[in-house]
Amino acid sequence: MSVKHGLLALLQDGSKYGYQLRAEFESATGATWPLNIGQVYSTLARLDRDGLVEAVGATGDEDDDTRSRYRITDAGRAELHGWFDTPVARRDRPRDELAIKLALAVAVPGIDVRAIIQRQRTTTMRSLQELTTLKRNAAADDVSWLLVVESMIFAAEAEIRWLDHCEAMLVRVARKPAGGSTGTSDPAGLAGPDAIGAPR
Amino acid sequence: MTATAPSPHPAGTATGAYVDLRALTRTFGEGETAAHALRGVSLTIQAGELVAVMGPSGSGKSTLLTCAGGLDLPTSGAVLVGGVDITALSRSAVAELRRRRIGYVFQDLNLIPALTAVENVALPLELDGIRARTARRMAADALDETGIGKLAERFPDDMSGGQQQRVAIARAIVGDRRVLLADEPTGALDSETGDTVLRLLRDRCDSHGVAGMLVTHEARHAAWADRIVFLRDGVLVDESGPTPSIETLLDES
Q1: Could you say which of A54, A127, B3, B64 has the lowest number of CB atoms within 10 Å?
Q2: Is the confidence at residue A13, as pLDDT, over 50?
Q3: Distance to chain A for B242, nearest Cα, Å
Q4: Shortest CB distance from B246 goes to which of A114, A154, A156?
Q5: Residues B5-22: tens digit of each pLDDT
Q6: What CA–CA distance (Å, rounded) separates B70 from B81?
């Protein structure tokens, strides 16, 4: 997703100033996605260029605010509905750094994979606790915010389950005798840093 | 193991913990076939604190909970509840402590189908010798607290799974319980209803100073706790966050 669609969505119910859009965006996503005002204005400029929004002059003579308000165009509305109607494909998301990190840790000799998994699980568990506290303290009718928090809770939960799975899998691999060799069987560095000097 | 003398200060031990589990071991069977469910677990829970015990199946987490609640005796170690070592008490004294001070919530609710919600909650009080009318009033209060006061006269079969679980929680908190022990209390409930159950447990600890232990294998449920401990193969692996030890896993031959 881009900020672009978020701003279009917020312009649905009327024209708004940039600073207003920023405040509403943060309130809807619970400030989990902080925007700076520069981002808002540069995005609005691009939307304007593409004909998805248009600037309208400041209303009321007593209002000396020279900045423009923006309103969504028909093309912008079509773009927005197209966005809402299209499911987010997994391949559109950024690559998972953690999966890559673990894959590399297993592939590169001498890395303590177990320690990486442990640290990650502890960190993710703490985030899950913090998110749960946010959920507990949220107002029951703040549905937008609760949706965002729940999304992060489910993601953290999935990551922990995945880490458990990785660890179990690595332990199973480590337990298998390595091709009848009498040396240590520790392809994934599971025995920890002590194993680095062990015969391979 | 030598028993600790009952403390004159029932509010807690020297460490301030209401529940103080010391070096618990629990072995089932003997000799080569013996199963070591707990291999020396120490854990404290303060009044007002909710501690989650996580771990895979067979890690000993349910055994830890039943020992903490006096439903099972450890093979060795001490279980201090409110400063009293319950491993040193007589069977009847433990039973009395269980009835009065400790509440249990299990995945399997054990509600009696022939009794209404309020009767189910009042039953343990009546068994404890409290007069029926008083017990009923206390039960009604507990049902109010779990948000189903209006369903007091319903039978369990006429309630949803979430409502039945609220009855079970009311039964666990009725009277002056100081310890709340929950073993996979969200069971088969959907996650939204499960949250409600966890919220109730959490609130009970926060607002009534109850010491709570929540056994679960689900990270999202454990996250409701103040502290999360992780058990693996009967050993407490980490107290601040779940960091299982591979040595423990590989230790078995």
Answers
A1: B3
A2: yes
A3: 6
A4: A114
A5: 444 444 444 457 899 999
A6: 9
Taking 3-state DSSP, the helix, strand and coil percentages for chain A, each rounded to the nearest 5, stand at 60, 5, 35
CATH class entry, domain A3-91: mainly alpha
pLDDT tens-place string over residues A30-67 = 667 778 888 899 999 999 999 999 998 755 444 444 57
CB contact under 8 Å between A128 and B246, yes or no, is no
Query: Which of B46, B52, B48 lies closest to B17, judged by CA?
Result: B46
B161 touches chain A (CB under 8 A): no
Q: Where are the domains of chain A?
A: 3-91, 95-197
Backbone angles phi, psi at A115, to 5 degrees: -65, -35
Within a 10 A sphere around the Cβ of A31, how many other Cβ atoms?
A: 12
The CA distances from residue A43 to A2, A10, B227, in Å, are 9, 13, 43
Domains of chain B (ranges, CATH numbers): 17-108+181-251 (3.40.50.300)
pLDDT tens string A122-145:
888 888 998 999 998 888 888 888
**Residue in B166, B177, B208 with CA at minimum distance from that of residue B99:** B177
A190 CB neighbours in chain B (<8 A) are: 246, 250
CA B167 centroid distance within chain: 16
